[in-house]
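Key idea: predict the complex, not the pieces.
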Amino acid sequence: MEAIYKRELKSYFHNMTGPIFMAAVLVFTGIYFVAYNIVQGYPYFAAALSGMSFVLLFVIPILTMRSFAEERKSKTDQLLLTSPVSVTQIVMGKYLAMISVLGFCMLISCLAPVIIHFYGGGSIPADYMAILGFFLLGAAYIAVGMFVSSLTESQIIAAVGTFCILLVLQLIDGITSILPSGASGSYVCFFILFLLAAAFVYLMTKNRVISCGVGAVCEIVLTIVYFVRQSSFEGMFGDFLNALSLISRYDNILNQTLELTTFFYYISVAAVFCFLTVQVIQKRRWS
Amino acid sequence: MIEVRNLTKKYGNTVAVDNLSFSVEEGEIYGFLGPNGAGKSTTMNIITGYIAASEGEVLINGYDILHDAKKAKSMIGYLPEIPPLYQDMTVREYLTFAAELKGIPKKEIGDAVDVAEKTVQVTDVSGRLIKNLSKGYKQRVGFAQALLGLPEVLILDEPTVGLDPKQIIEIRDLIRELGKNHTIILSSHILSEVSAICDKIMIISQGRLIAADTPANLMELMQPSVRLNISLKAEKEKAEAVLSSIEGISRYGIRESEEEGILEAEVEYEHGADLRDRIALAFAEAKRLVVGLREETASLEDIFLELTEPEEKNASALIAESEKREREDAKSDLKNDGGDPEETAEEGEEERHGSDL
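Result:
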């Protein structure tokens, strides 16, 4: 794992990916910092980072697109997969390298709270919490990007796919507001969601019995619950989607309310996508 | 040592490798031969653990490649068809990375890389970026990667592709040298190469093992008798008389050659009985001059073509396979015969149930 981590990190700075990524993150952090904290005199760095979260959508795919897509295209994955390291070690080595690049940017932006403090006001612990939260948000995004990259051989598809998924996650609040909020609307949305889940299970396992079984059980349970406790379906799908939203949780940090659940949520999203990446690579060896 | 048992790999409905079994002893060099798409690379990818087999198992020195992956993989050096090179690294960096990846202890990495570089002669490009190297050098760097730490088992997929003739000879010598105390499987398109290096040849077609034997035995199998071409300075009647007096000749034919006064005789006799000296002496006693004597052998190309020809596959498979394999085949045929009627019976029952309902 150490060898892969070192190689990946070096390779980010051998070609232009690493410098471009860091430059983009730092330049935009600087712009937001100057605009919000210096010019407008807002005493919390979290405000600048909140603006930065939109920039992350564009730069994270640059960082993650080549992670597995390129390995596959150039067949170098043969070296990794035939060497005595486990797939988990390979994935973690790469993942840690990518979040390290983001980590460097975050370390540099650790200067910002000090500058704010220098001007007077602000709260240094709150600002560092905000930076940590932002780093974890980025880490979750990187895990999503790595997962998409493991699905394809094309870096372009990986980048565009990651961007689309992150954009949907970003806009999820807006999307929920246009969805039907009534009980029956929620029921239909969940029904469709379970159908899609069953289709996904079929794609992964190629087993009709299992996927149909999983789908049927979910739909039946859903229908029973719907008829027994119809009232609880009111706005349930919207709440469900909102709960998935990564960025709305970041607003908690913005409001100076430190919630550990936010941190844990980001870490678990990252863990889930790292796990899925391992599964995708393992599965490809079997098909 | 490598043991492969009942290996099968299916991609959807296509069968890439079909019930392949063999074992390679330590100190043996095995050559994989087969037309394009025969399943050579797939087999090698399965042996090295890059992809998993649909059925069957692979044991490397007794360790299963799937269940004891770490131990099994640490014993293998693998050079895939396309060398797995990171273009943005220098040769030295790449080999150091590969050595770390293979779990070679930190202190020994420097030496291991030096040895590997020296063995395939890439020391002079050590500091250059891999993307700037020529194809031959890239191939050699890939080979160096496989040699790192001198693993007990070497799997080489077309190791001499892209090398110049001098390099090819050097690499062949190297493989032969390594073969003395390593277990090696290599595949190649170049038949002469396989017959020159390998102790045993496995011919694979459509994912099935057709023949596995030493090069000499394969040739003997394909050509039961030795054919001798003799150029003579003699009259036709005299030559006939001499040839018919020699015991052991199964067949002969005589014709005039383009050169004036020279006859061409074709003589056939069984393997093992070397009649060359006796023929030469017989003509000498008859005071007739033998100008040329040349033994004709079936080339590996002929064997390869014949064995991999689809129409003649079954016939030649029977000829070439060892008795043991024949028995195995017979067993599996029996099993198939036994299995089919049952299946059809079941289907019939199901149909009847369906109509009842």
